[in-house]
Amino acid sequence: MKKTVYAMAAILLSLVGFTACSEDDDEKDVFDDVTTELTDDVIFSFSYDNATMFETATVEISLLKKENSTQSFTAPKDITFPIVVDETSTAVEGTHFEFDGEKALTVAKGASKGTLKLKLLQKEEGKDVIVLKIQKPQNDTDRFFLGNNESVTIKIAGETIEVLKGTWSNCTWDNKAYYEMTYDITIFPQVSVEDQISISDQGIEVKLKSDLKNYFVGNSSLQYVGEKEFRFTDNFYIKRNVAVFILDNINANFSATSSTIKDSRVGFTVIKDENNEEVLEMFIYSYEPTEFLVEDYEAMKDIATEDEPAMFGYPLRYHFKRVQ
């Protein structure tokens, strides 16, 4: 009988010990995750220094290794960077805009970037600029060094169509150099400084002299879809919040000899150039080429979606200057 009691006691003790060890192990895992110390010096910076807000705006932080600033730094734990609204802002938090969630940028464990979203509350003339500054995290402060973009300036554009309205001309192909590195661009659509488009509540009116007329085959209505974020393939650190519209008079083949007329998505936004003049930036990414980028299209078409057509990763980006 005593042997049985001793055996049962031993089993109970072993179970208690096992449970205690398991609890200790769990606590140790959590503790280690919270107190993980950085062993590398890190450069932190906004990924870009300006953005446009229609209904929303998104800003991004990037982490780089200080010893080699061309390499991304992978966060060993969640790292949170406080954000402050700079006194140079003319827009007022809570009146003109608000943060969608925490007023901070968090880079998740295993990532090298983090994003923060802002929402438009109302646009007021003269109070349409938001300037955000990024600060060091509370822990490991001696490991963090500020990069090129300490602040980001967000221009509140407001209702999308109002920003885009007007006549735009003097077209240039903005990401031409990117395609030129890999492809024979002589077979790509060419543009002309005489190309002109006008945007109004009635839609888009085109007066085109170049190959753009093989895509925009006539005037089109504009159906607003929403905002979409584009990351530049020619400069991965640049992103744009772009207003996407469905146009109804588009030749998806972008060709003078082949025609597939269908509703297609085109992105627009307005930026400022080095002379502080307005530029209409247009993203053509919903196309089915038959004369250029054909192999790339064939490789991507089976995984295409309505929101991200086959050529989403191959956008053609054009700039127009405001005429009126």
Q: Could you list some keywords that capture this structure?
A:
8-stranded antiparallel beta sheet; signal; Calx-beta domain-containing protein; alpha+beta; Immunoglobulin-like; 324 residues; disordered N terminus; 5-stranded mixed beta sheet
CA-based gyration radius: 26 Å
Number of domains: 2
Beta-strand percentage range = 35-45%
| Main sheet overview | 8 strands, antiparallel
- Measured as a percent range, the helix fraction is 10-25%
Head-to-tail CA distance between termini: 101 Å
Number of helical regions: 4
The strands making up the biggest β-sheet line up spatially as 13-12-11-18-17-16-15-14
Order of helices and strands: HEEEEEEEEEEHEHEEEEEEHE
Question: In terms of topology, how is this protein built?
Answer:
Elements: H1 2-35, E1 42-46, E2 50-53, E3 56-65, E4 79-85, E5 97-99, E6 104-107, E7 113-120, E8 129-134, E9 144-146, E10 151-156, H2 160-164, E11 166-173, H3 176-180, E12 196-200, E13 203-207, E14 222-231, E15 239-251, E16 261-272, E17 278-284, H4 294-300, E18 316-322
Parallel strand pairs: 1-9, 2-10
Antiparallel strand pairs: 1-3, 3-7, 4-6, 4-8, 5-7, 8-10, 11-12, 11-18, 12-13, 14-15, 15-16, 16-17, 17-18
Signal peptide: 1-22
Protein name: Calx-beta domain-containing protein
Keywords: Signal
